[in-house]
Amino acid sequence: MTQLDHRPSDDRQATALPPDLTARELARWSWRQLTSMRTALVLLLLLALAAIPGSVIPQEDIDSLAVSQWRDNHPRLAPIWDRLDLFAVYGSVWFSAIYILLMISLVGCIVPRLFVYARALRARPPRAPRNLARLPQHTSYETDEDPEVVLARAATALRRKRYRVARTDGADSVDAERGHLREAGNLLFHLAVIVVLVGVAIGSLFGYKGGVIMYNGADYGFSNNLTQYDDFAPGSLFDPAVMEPFSFSITDFDVDWITDGPRAGMARKFVAHLDYTTEPGAQTQQYDLRVNHPLSIGGTDVFLIGHGYAPVITIRDGEGNIAQSGPTVFLPTNAQTFESFGVVKAPDAQPTQIGLEGTFYPTFTMGQDADGNLTMPASAWGDALDPLVSLQVFTGDVGLDDGTSSSVYVLDKTRADQVTKANGQPFRLDLRPGESVDLPDGLGSVTFEGLQRWNKIQISRTPGKMVALTGVVAALLGLLGSLFVRPRRLWVRARRRDDGTTLVEVARLDRSSGGDPETGRTELAGIVAALRQDREARP
Question: Residues 6 or more apart from 481 whose CB is under 8 A from it?
Answer without folding.
Answer: 181, 182, 184, 185, 186, 188
